[in-house]
Amino acid sequence: MKAKEIIDELKTYASTERKKINEWFFKTGPGQYSEHDQFIGVRVPHTRTVAKKHFNDIALVQLDQLINHPIHEVRHCGLIMLVNKYQSGDKDQIFNYYLDNIHAANNWDLVDTTIPHTIGDYLLNHQNKLSILFNFAKSSNLWQRRIAIVATYAFIKNNQFKPTLDIAKLLLNDSHDLIHKATGWMLREIYKKDNEVCKTFLRQNYAQLPRTTLRYAIERMQEDERLHYLSGEF
After folding, report:
1. In this structure, how many other beta carbons lie within 10 angstroms of the beta carbon of residue 5?
2. What is the pLDDT of residues 165-216, one digit of tens each?
3. Closest CA to 117 of 146, 88, 153, 68
4. Phi-psi sector, 41: left (phi>0), alpha (psi -120 to 50), beta
5. What percent of the chain has a predicted confidence (pLDDT) above 70?
6. Nearest CA to 77 among 44, 107, 99?
């Protein structure tokens, strides 16, 4: 299967209306985080359909052309193919390939829908390599910092919270809203598993917590308790 054939198939699902929605939703205006990203207007379910249909038939050398493509939906399709390949094939090979091409996960949806199922899952089972995430957390690259915290979702699902809490601590003073949201999201996932672990972290780090992180983290609390946390009354 050639990359061009997959791109052509994706384009059959494109629409002008969805293109405009995606450009607005992913903030492609001047100075916004996706200013230079390009969209053709393909819905995610269609992207997943194409990826599932062809992932077994495309070699990594052809996949290079998808994950490095300027069109967002093409990159997303290529990265979803990586998830499919990882889950059904040589996990070591796909992990190393994704790590070598980590630059391709350069928007929040690309990170969120693929990293926990590949990089996160692999590191859960190879924790001697966990330093990779801590290095990402200290990166000047926004998407690598998001990768660092979102990858720990794989740990949370397995009731292992320390990597998330340690990386969240490193990211408390991050200046970007997309990191605040991702950190709050992961803390909320911990809350769903063990609310006391989450609450302890929030109390201990309250003075440094970005407001957005706090709001995301406490979404599952009862209204009265949520108001106490918003006001810092524990």
Report:
1. 13
2. 999 999 999 999 999 999 999 999 999 999 999 999 999 999 999 999 999 9
3. 153
4. left
5. 100
6. 44
- Collapse the DSSP code of 225 into the 3-class scheme (helix H, G, I; strand E, B; otherwise coil) and give the result: helix
Q: Taking the model in full, what pTM does it have?
A: 0.95
Q: Which DSSP string corresponds to 16-46?
A: HHHHHHHHHHTT-STTSTTTT-B-----HHH
CA distances 36 to 88, 112, 114, 210, Å, are: 33, 20, 21, 27
- Token pair 């980590």 is found at 102
Write the DSSP string, 132-192. Answer: HHHHHHT-S-HHHHHHHHHTTHHHHTTT--HHHHHHHHHTTT---HHHHHHHHHHHHHHHH
- Nearest by Cα to 65 from 3, 5, 7, 1: 3
Burial (CB count <10 Å: 0-12, 13-18, 19+), residue 192: exposed
Place of tokens 């859960």: 124
Residue range 119-173, pLDDT digits in tens: 999 999 999 999 999 999 999 999 999 999 999 999 999 999 999 999 999 999 9
Is residue 35's pLDDT more than 90? no
Beta bridge partners of 71: 38
